[in-house]
Amino acid sequence: MMILIADDSATMRRIVIRALSEMGEKDTVEAENGHAALDAIAKGGVEFVITDWNMPAMNGLDFVTQLRASNTKIPVLMVTTNASNVDVIQALKAGVNNCIIKPFTPETMKEKIKAMFSE
Description:
The protein is α/β, with parallel strands linked by helices. The chain has helices spanning 10-22, 34-42, 60-69, 85-94, 106-118; strands at residues 2-6, 28-31, 46-52, 76-80, 98-101.
């Protein structure tokens, strides 16, 4: 499964890629903001997205809103420091399938992803 990791932090992208690799997922593509993420999806093949909320140029919430406006059903996991219920509800209303709050462990991410794909 090709997984897109959208985060402005190269370090965070590496952390997520390493955690995915430990889960056996090695087919990844990276984007540093929502615009780059939309471009990567337009190229085809992306089956799952892990996106940060806070990114320059186009944040994760705007990215997901545009993604869903194009009727794309790709599952999206939002990674954020915005831990309030209001923020999580806003993300879910935009079309995010699940959220994970930073900081997180690889095990927490694995559990969130498994939950998303078992629904």
